[in-house]
Amino acid sequence: MTFERPNIEEMEGYMPGEQPSGSDVVKLNTNENPYPPGPKVAKCLTHIAVDSLRRYPPPLANDFRLAAATLHQVAPENIIPTNGGDEFLRLVMTTFVGAGEIIAVTKPSYSLYPVLAGIQDSELVEIPLEDDWSMPKTFAAKLNQLNAKLAIIVNPHAPTGSLLDSSYLAKIAHDFNGVLLIDEAYVDFIDPELNYDSIPLINQFPNILFLRTMSKGYSLAGLRFGYGIGPSQLISPMMYKTRDSYNTDFIAQKLATAAILDTAYAQDTWQKVRASRQQLAKDLAHLGISSLPSQANFLLCEIPQITGAQALYQSLKMQSILVRYFDQDRLRNKLRISIGNGPENQRLISAISQLL
């Protein structure tokens, strides 16, 4: 006998990347920023009075909303702070997709999407990427044929790191009859020379939303703070109806606000990651391991068949180096490797060189 709802009993839970406790581990498996948060975050943390924790936090996190709105040149009404980007995903599904209705994603994609769709008791439809990992042809038409209520696109894509330009996103938003959510968890690592700027699309299309997170670019994965950006008519029902009453805590609000007000520091870490990404791709290529062009803080690497991706993953793990292996179609011969700092990347290359 079970007391679970039938859809919960049938679904599989999300399996996060390994989180080791040892200090000697080179952790390149969960796409964290290899550099620490900025000095303003550290200073803010030391000035938080313990007595302030006896009161509830500001329910709307308006200090952060204002700071984020200023950064993105939108109104505070276009911003919703959330307990990590994952809560924003859940809020979007809860607010705009009913039980039995369709959520569409590309395949492969972020493995949490099927879990959240299962919790919502919605139907998830995965539309395969093309053989060259490009977007499916006539993607918006397929979405409308499915009568999808929500479509989610990761940009830059995970796990490939490829980038869609904003004009393509605009076309999908224009043609699609449902809500289009662009998951921009890795947007901070895009090469500035590409001039990628998607946020103005919220002023052109009433059906587009963007997910942002403080976890990656701002080195605050342990804080669990994210936010959504969109037209006020989409943000408002989440903000005032489906969101938990105090969904972000006092300390998280303070530190996230300090971080986003110090974007100049974060930008320096983004540039370091981009430079390391380029160098790591070259070093891996010299070892016979190719990787897809990436605009994220990771590389999707094809492992020679004679070695095998799973075998290399296990061998690296035995040397306290963690990378990500996916037991999925089209990914079993690949490893996703997060960009580390200089010494971490060099230790990885040295280990792979010995193992190969």
Might you state the CATH topology name of the largest domain?
Aspartate Aminotransferase, domain 2
Care to count the β-strands? 13
| Broad CATH class of the largest domain | Alpha Beta
Q: Which CATH architecture of the largest domain would you pick?
A: 3-Layer(aba) Sandwich
What are the low-pLDDT stretches, counting only 5+ consecutive residues below 50? none
Please count the helical segments: 12
Principal-axes shape call: globular
Describe this structure in words.
The protein is an alpha/beta fold and 356 residues long. 38% of the residues lie in helices and 15% in strands. Helix 3 packs parallel to helix 9.
Write a brief caption for the model:
By secondary structure, this protein is α/β, with parallel strands linked by helices. It is 38% helix and 15% strand.
Topology record:
Layout: H1 6-10, E1 26-27, H2 39-46, H3 62-72, E2 79-82, H4 84-96, E3 102-107, H5 112-120, E4 123-128, H6 139-146, E5 150-154, H7 166-175, E6 179-183, E7 208-213, E8 226-229, H8 232-242, H9 250-260, H10 263-286, E9 290-291, E10 298-302, H11 309-318, E11 321-322, E12 324-325, E13 334-338, H12 342-355
Parallel strand pairs: 1-11, 3-4, 3-5, 5-6, 6-7
Antiparallel strand pairs: 2-8, 7-8, 9-10, 10-13, 12-13
Helix pairs in contact: 2-9, 3-9, 4-5, 4-8
